[in-house]
Amino acid sequence: MKKSLFSKTLSALFTTLAASIFMASSAMAEDCPHGDLDERFCDRDGDLVADAPTDSSKWLDPDTLIFAYTPVEDPAVYKEAWADFLAYMEKTTGKKVVFFPVQSNAAQIEAMRSGRLHIAGFNTGSNPLAVNCSGYHPFTIMAGADGSFGYEMEIITHPGSGIEKVEDIKGKTLAFTSPTSNSGFKAPSALLKKEFNMIADRDFTPAYSGKHDNSILGVANKDYPAASIANSVKKRMLKRDVVKEDQLKTIYKSQTFPTTSYGYAYNLKPELAANIVKTFETFPWDNADGTPSSLKVEFSKNGEAKFIPITYKEHWSVIRTIDSANEVSYACK
After folding, report:
1. Mean per-residue pLDDT for 124-152?
2. I want to staple 268 with a disulfide (CB 3.0 to 4.6 A). Which of 81, 273, 300, 305 is the partner?
3. Which residues 6+ apart lie within 8 Å of 316 measured at CB?
C-alpha cells in the first residue's frame, strides 16, 4: 500500500519534469563567468557555486519539495530518521515535502540536474560533481554541540622509528588501509604527491592493512614504521585504551574533511531557498515534550547535535585538492 502511494506521488511529480528540463536547458551557455561549473551555470560572485537565475521566470517554485539523503544501505531507516525534520520543513516552507530514497550518488546528482530533486544531503566525495554539474548549493553540515565536525587524515609513526617528518618515510614502508578508503589511501596518495612529490613504489613501499584499526595497532606495535589513518578511529581506540598516546606520534595532519553537506538546487525561488536555509538553522533537535526528534535519535549516535553553516569554497578546498591530484574531472556526462 505504501509503495503504491509513493508511486502515485512520484508520478504526479514527474508530470513537472518536462517543464523543469526546459528551464534547465534554457540557462545554457549564458555569457558569464563559469569557473569549473557546467556552462549553463553562472558564478559572478566567485563563490564556486551556481548563481540563482537573474530571470525570475526561470525560478523553480514547486508545490511539492523532494528531499534526498545520500545513498545508504537501507534508505527506509533514513526516511524515518528525517521524518520530524521534513514535517518541520513543511511548516517553514508551506510546501509538501517528500523523502526520495535514491540508490546511488549518480542517480542523486542526475535527479537534481534534471530538476526532480530540490533539497539534498550529498556525501563528501560527490559534492564537487553535484555543485558543478547539478547546480547544487551546499550551505550547512551537521556538527557536534561544540561546533566540531568531520575528521582529519593523519600520518602516524611510533617513537624510535627514525621518522620525524613526512620526508623521512622515503625508503621505508607506509601502511595504507585499502585502495577504496579516502583517508586510508586516496587522500594521502594525492597529498603526498602534491605537497611532497612522493609516490608509492617509487619513494616508499606501500602496505595494505585492510582497516584503520589494523594500521593503528600495526604502528603502535612497531609492525609498520608509519601509516595513514582517519583520526576519528584513533580517538575511539585511545578512549577504549586499545592503544596508548605514548605509542603513537603524528607527523602530518590534513585539513578537516567535511562530512555530508546539505543544500538546495540553485534555481529555486530565492524566498523558497531562504526558507529552506531557515529550516536547517531553526530546527529543534528535541520535541516540545522534551523527547528527542527522530533526527536526533539517529544522528546523535555519531555525536551530531546541530547544523552549522559552511561554504563549498572553503570547506571543500581539501577535497578539490585531492580530486585535482587524482586528475578527477568535473565535466558533466
Report:
1. 93
2. 273
3. 127, 128, 138, 258, 261
**Across the strands, what pairs with 306?**
143
pLDDT computed for residue 14 by the predictor = 45
* Mean pLDDT of all residues in 146-160: 94
Q: How far apart are alpha carbons 313 and 46 in whole angstroms?
A: 9
Q: Quick check: is 121 in a domain?
A: yes
325 φ/ψ angles, rounded to the nearest 5 degrees: -65, -30
- Residue 126, C-alpha cell as written in the block: 560527490
Phi then psi dihedrals of residue 127, to 5 deg: -55, -50
> CA–CA separation, 100 vs 116, rounded Å?
10
The residue among 318 and 25 whose pLDDT is bigger is 318
**Same structural domain, 40 and 187:** no
Give the CATH number of the domain where residue 317 resides: 3.40.190.10
CB-based contacts of 66: which residues, under 8 Å, 6+ apart? 13, 97, 98, 100, 111, 116, 117, 118, 119
Tell me the pTM.
Answer: 0.72
Q: How many domains does the chain have?
A: 2
- Segment 219-246 shows an average pLDDT of 92
Residue 56: per-residue pLDDT: 97
